[in-house]
Amino acid sequence: MIQKIYEVDPLTCPKCNGAMRIPAFVEYQNVIRKILHHLGLWKPTPRAPPPPPDIALDTSLSQVPAWEDDLNQNPGLPIDWCA
């Protein structure tokens, strides 16, 4: 997929341009954790999630007036379809 999208062969060695191959896939979390811990790359403390973005809804760009918006209508009142 990388080769098709980016037109670069990910299995070409960047140093010698020789062909590389994938000897195995590690799929189990506990094995991955042990390997990363052994290499000193495991960070046991999770990072805090990023704060939510400050998003303000700009209703001035809407082409539908607020009183005709189905989301803002009182569900207890009937909708006048002839208006």
Protein architecture, described:
This protein has 83 residues and is an all-alpha fold. The chain has a domain at 1-44. Helices cover 18% and strands 0% of the residues. It has two helices and no strands. The protein has helices at residues 2-6, 29-38. It starts with a helix and ends in a 45-residue tail after the last helix. The model has no long low-confidence stretch (mean pLDDT 78).
What would the keywords be for this entry?
2 helices, 0% strand, 83 residues
How does the SSE layout of this entry go?
Layout: H1 2-6, H2 29-38
Specify the overall morphology: extended
Oligomer kind = single chain
Mean pLDDT: 78
How big a fraction of the residues is strand?
Answer: under 5%
| Helical fraction | 10-25%
Q: What's the end-to-end separation, in Å?
A: 53 Å
Low-confidence stretches: none
The count of β-strands is: 0
Q: What's the alpha carbon Rg, rounded to whole Å?
A: 28 Å
Query: Total number of helical segments?
Result: 2
SS-based class: mainly alpha
Order of helices and strands: HH
Please summarize the sheet with the most strands. Answer: none
